[in-house]
Amino acid sequence: MTLLRRSGYWEGSFEAMASPCSLLAEVANAEVARRLLAIARAEALRIEAKYSRYRTDNILYRINTSAGQPLEVDDETAQLLDYAAHCYTLSEGRFDVTSGVLRQVWRFDGSDRVPSAEAVIALLPRIGWEKISWQRPRLMVPPGMEIDFGGIGKEYAVDRSALLLAAETDASLLINYGGDLFATSARADGHSWRIGLDDPAATGERSTGELEIRRGAIATSGDARRYLLKDGIRYSHILDPRTGWPVPDAPHSVTVVADTCLEAGMLATFAMLMGREAEVFLGRQATGHHIIR
Asked: How confident is the model at residue 158 (pLDDT cuts 50, 70, 90)?
């Protein structure tokens, strides 16, 4: 965890959820900034520990090893499951937290290792939220199926951190967890926070413009870092759970502005899942957005 003084604000950083995380805080002294950074870091790490699919000591592991036996979940997990069910319905099955099993055959490492059709088809019976029995607080996951909150976990951590930090200070803050952001208010001078938009063709090296935000969230979904390339075809890591294959004609990047990071992330992912209809979909939403083809 590091803390640096910038022009007009403190910048703190740490690692969580396999992402660089930062907090920009317009507070007067290092002690306050360090305390806020510690709160943000603790909450991000708490959520990571609770919902990481790589651990064997959390609620997600108990769910995924329940072998068809019903179990009761805590209120926080229940809220995420309710949200997952809502996303599944709104997206007509395109957004599905049971589709994580597809990572067994899809590894988006920039190589040309595209799985066979047979390997993908073999996993489809293990996908489908409609096969889950969920009556709060009781959950039953059929044997062989899994829940994966990777598609909403980071956005949820941003919103939770923003809520905790807003209870500690009225100062303007900008939370950034791996490119998912939340601004608590306009800056002290009345200006917005200015957010650079990453160029997927040279990710981390240049931007394609910027967005301004006074209060609210920004989330981006794209294939800049996770893709396969074979015979001149680029396969995005955005998979359609109904087919098990990458969405055809999906944009390289979709960035959405919304009231919460969960909402922004949901809309960005939905747009990617709409493929060539991404622009039409976001055009119907009352929210700012930026699409890179």
From this structure: very high
Burial class of residue 281, CB neighbours in 10 A (0-12, 13-18, 19+): middle
- Domains in the chain: boundaries: 1-53+150-191, 56-149+216-293
What pLDDT is recorded for position 205? 65
Quick one: which H or E segment has residue 20?
A: strand 19-25
DSSP characters over 59-95: HHHHHHTSTT--EE--HHHHHHHHHHHHHHHHTTTSS
Q: Which helix (H) or strand (E) holds 240?
A: strand 239-240
Q: How far is CA 72 from the centre of its chain?
A: 25
Query: For tokens 């979904």, what's the residue?
Result: 221
Topology of domain 1-53+150-191 in CATH is: T-fold (3.10.520)
68: left (phi over 0), alpha (psi -120 to 50) or beta: left
Question: What residues are paired with 22 via a beta bridge?
Answer: 13, 176
As a CATH number, domain 56-149+216-293 is 3.10.520.10
Question: Which tokens belong to 16?
Answer: 């969580």
